[in-house]
From TrEMBL:
Mg(2+) binds at residues 199, 213. GO terms for molecular function: ATP binding; magnesium ion binding; succinate-CoA ligase (ADP-forming) activity. Keywords: ATP-binding, Ligase, Magnesium, Metal-binding, Nucleotide-binding, Tricarboxylic acid cycle. It catalyses: GTP + succinate + CoA = succinyl-CoA + GDP + phosphate; succinate + ATP + CoA = succinyl-CoA + ADP + phosphate. One of its GO terms (cellular component) is succinate-CoA ligase complex. The gene is sucC. Pathway: Carbohydrate metabolism; tricarboxylic acid cycle; succinate from succinyl-CoA (ligase route): step 1/1. It comes from the Bacteria. This is Succinate--CoA ligase [ADP-forming] subunit beta. Heterotetramer of two alpha and two beta subunits. Its EC number is 6.2.1.5. Belongs to the succinate/malate CoA ligase beta subunit family.
């Protein structure tokens, strides 16, 4: 689960990580009050969306007057923000964070994640923080300092000091750095985090170290024991279809292609998508309806696929192991009865009760192309969806 920057910063403060003063608002009329409370004469208006790259996407606006802050709020609130990390639709900006502007001396990077190769929680740090950290990581990886924490031990202040030294931080900045890193580690451990990141972590002209941005991803499987974190969920930032799908225990991911896929089993779904691609098509989604599926779930899955905007054809590929193909056929017919069928559809059934399932479809009078061979089915749907 992702959270917003302002929520990450609230958590930072609880764990002794310093951040700029900021006020969250959701209408422009609140802007002048916020500026007055924050004092100073420079403010930054920051769109709150679950994606990075906001700076590049115009979602972080530096303002030199209250009027400019109001303009920035007007420009962002109620719009969809598109950044290099969102899809073409972008994400809705329902709130902005107005922050006191800072005199930035240096932009550092500091993050913690689970490195599966070394099987350790790993600290990543760099003197080259800011909006191009991805470029730094890929082009000059030696500029990223890595430190693995012993899973049976803990992160101690000597470790922090040595990382601070490598970042050329001394005296009070090194002390603030230790405090920041220990706070991040504490959040990571106690909240079952999978990634936590401050980019940029800045040093200011006043010799302070501040978290100017904050990103935290939590392990979904551990959310049951963190009610406080679960309460931070913002469903306006999540894909609607993926949400409905999870309610019905369907594993659904929207993609950019034109052929809707309904498959049982993740491996078979991937193979099906590869085959569509191989024959010149592209998938509109990944969908695994799971093992012990029901007619009702199939109907829901079918509904979801049909509402995907770019879909021009549907391929159903079911291998009946635990699941019975005749039940799948019933689900498809139920769905068509409910939502109608305005797209070409190819159904390939194989395995338990396949013959009965295909017979049901063939005798239904609905315009469904049935196939028992997967390659033929893929070729057919690519052709029909053109
Ligand atoms: P991101 O692009 O989504 O990662 O958003 P960030 O919160 O990291 O902001 C992007 C960039 O905006 C930062 O790297 C800074 O260079 C700049 N920025 C953000 N806040 C301030 C500020 O208070 N003062 C100044 N001068 N620049 C800021
Ligand atoms: Mn950032």
């Amino acid at each position: 689960m992702h959270i917003h920057e302002y929520q990450a910063k609230t958590l930072f403060k609880k764990f002794n990580i310093q951040t700029p003063n900021g006020i969250l608002i959701d209408t422009t009329v609140q802007a002048s009050d916020a500026c007055a409370k924050l004092e100073g004469d420079i403010w930054v208006v920051k769109a709150q969306v679950h994606a990075g790259g906001r700076g590049k996407g115009g979602g972080v606006i530096l303002c030199r007057s209250v009027g400019e802050v109001e303009q920035a709020c007007d420009k962002l609130l109620g719009t969809q923000l598109i950044t290099p990390q969102t899809d073409v639709k972008g994400l809705p900006v329902n709130q902005v964070l107005v922050e006191a502007g800072q005199n930035i001396e240096q932009e550092l990077y500091l993050g913690l994640l689970i490195d599966r190769q070394t099987q350790k929680i790993t600290v990543l740090a760099s003197t080259e923080g800011g909006i191009d950290i991805e470029k730094v990581a890929s082009e000059t990886p030696d500029k990223i300092i890595k430190f693995g924490v012993d899973p049976l031990g803990t992160l101690n202040s000597q470790d922090c000091d040595s990382i601070a030294q490598k970042l050329n931080l001394a005296d009070t900045l090194a002390e603030q750095f230790s405090q920041t890193l220990l706070g991040l580690y504490e959040i990571f451990i106690t909240k079952d985090v999978s990634l936590i990141e401050i980019n940029p972590l800045i040093t200011t002209a006043e010799n302070t170290l501040l978290a100017l941005d904050g990103k935290i991803d939590f392990d979904d499987n551990a959310l049951y024991r963190h009610e406080d974190i679960l309460a931070l969920r913002d469903i306006s930032q999540e894909d609607e279809k993926e949400m409905t799908a999870s309610e019905y225990q369907l594993n659904y991911i929207s993609l950019n292609g034109t052929i809707g896929c309904m498959v049982n089993g993740a491996g078979l779904a991937m193979a099906t998508m590869d085959l569509i691609e191989h024959h010149g098509g592209s998938s509109a989604n990944f969908l695994d309806v799971g093992g012990g599926t029901t007619a009702q779930r199939v109907a829901k899955a079918f509904e979801l696929i049909q509402t995907e905007k770019n879909v021009s054809g549907v391929l159903v590929n079911i291998f009946g192991g635990i699941v019975r193909c005749d039940l799948i056929a019933e689900g498809i017919l139920q769905a068509i009865e409910k939502v109608g069928l305005n797209l070409p559809i190819v159904v390939r059934l194989e395995g338990t009760n396949a013959a009965a399932g295909l017979k049901l479809l063939d005798e239904s009078g609905v315009a469904i192309h049935t196939e028992s061979d997967l390659t033929q089915a893929a070729i057919k749907i690519v052709e029909l969806s053109k």
